[in-house]
Amino acid sequence: MSKKNKSSHQKHVSNLSRASDKKKKPSSTKTYPFYYNMILLIIPIMLIIAIEVTLRVADYGKNLDQWIKATDTEYLLNPDVGFRYFYNTETVPYSARDLFDIEKKSNSYRVFILGGSSAAGYPYTPAASFSKYIRKRLQLLCPENKIEVVNLAFAAINTYTILDLLPGVLEQKPDLILIYAGHNEFYGALGAGSMESLGNSPTVVNFMLGLNKFKTTQFIRNTIKSIYSLIGDGEKPRGTLMARMAKEQTIELDSDIYTYGMDQFKENFEEIIYKIKETGIKVIASDLVSNLKDQKPFISIENGTKPSADSIYGIALSQYAAGNLDISIELFKEAKDLDGLRFRASSELNEIIIKVCSQNNVPVVNSENEFNSLSKSKIADNELMTDHLHPTVTGYHIIGKLFFNAMIKHNYLPTDKAVDLSIEAQDEFVKRNFNFTKLDSTIARYRIIALKADWPYVEKSLSVERTLKIMQVKNYLDSLALKVLDDKITWEKAHRSLALRYIRERKIDLFKDELAALTDLYPYIDEYYSLASKELLAIKEFDEAYNYLIEYDENRDDQFTSKWIGIISLSRNDFTSAIKHLEKSLRMNPNDAQALYNLSGAYSQQKKYKEALDMISRCLLVNPNYKGAKEFQAQLLAAVK
To answer: Looking at the whole model, is its pTM more than 0.70?
Structure first.
């Protein structure tokens, strides 16, 4: 073939190929209408919505709403809300069951407390916390206000939980929020070193927490958990919550996980402060206290890159013994920061709290310096600390006083009226009336013993027998405390049982102490006042019963209560009160012979003989044999003539 013909042939083939390509292209790029893609997007969304609706209608799983009704008019933090954050823990912690009005009253002053176990008052929960101190100071200074101090803190949580709960808190229009948080940032729920972790990105974790409000998420979580339990070894985690929460036991200072934890706290804490400030709600934060002198490092890392925690702690002790206080404090802090087990907040975390608050004009109280100053050793130690980071009752009073003084300084109180009592007098009054009993201190002591019988205080957990031997359970009070520790009875039931024991033994003052502990924490439970008054009346302690009767009468109409207020008032020659309450009692039960007899006596003391005669005659109609009634009737008949 000639070159010309060959070229012509190739050109012809090329043209045919291009023509063929043009014919094939339309069939290989098929397009779909817009609505087709929309349907593909909508179908899975509708399926998820259908699943969510079905699960809600079927009331599947737990109610994880933030607030639940305690009464028709009051909310409390849902005890099950912890299941939003604890995926692998069978028994989740919960807050003190403080109530507040669903509809905030015009004279209400509402304070919310946010934080972990130290803010909750561990190991004295629920009997002692700085929130209780603040409530009592407010009630003393502002009797015209309805004081609502609501402690939302609970164990093993960190800023992820606080940030998740914050929108619901802000909706309740608190006047003030107090924050004491940060010790749990690594090992608390969803922390960088926790068994309950969703990764190291605050953005991802907070997004996942948003999904936890849906039943579908709960269904998926439970399904995964069930599958895991089938393929796992079936052994449940043992030990204290503190021991069970620590996944990454060793976290070296400045390591990647340490940096994640600091970034996590800073980002979340900044967001918390920003959101509160954005609403105009007042907020005060505190830095964190740790046991510096009497808590040696849990894990000392020996790798040569940094000095070991144990070596620095040893030098700190030597400097303290030599009288070099300032140097020893800094060394104790350094030893804490080098501790490979991050159960105590590092100095960097406290610096973040102070810096973020300063940048946002938020008052911050310096609890760490105050504890160092007030300890006899001038360094935070076992005098004011129960363990590595939880204060004693006195320690909690100190934190409460610091917060309250900041409230005064920044004009955050609901009143600006002059107060007769000095700050120190107020402080002493609260301490004297704190309603903290021996049962509470025993429960706390047992909690600390149990805590220190497990890792990380000991390498191998002590046996139950050994732990019980240390506890020295000797009497009925001790046995109740142990049952509370074992979750066999509630704190409330333990105090009630001990109160009844004391009344049987005629130990009236101890009985009143136990009832005071109950009514102080749960003043809205009318049953306590009823129980106290009936038990005291049964042993003829009428004057002791009177105050409980008055308290109960203020909250509800009760025939028995009104009658006995009237009878005791009559014995006190308060005839106006006697007539008022006996008449009220008879309106509820017109045929109570005892009430009729005593009302007759009250009328006669006011020389209303006709009314008195009418009452005694009705008494005899109800009970012809009522003791003394016939003789009294005869006297009244003579008086009327």
So the answer is: yes
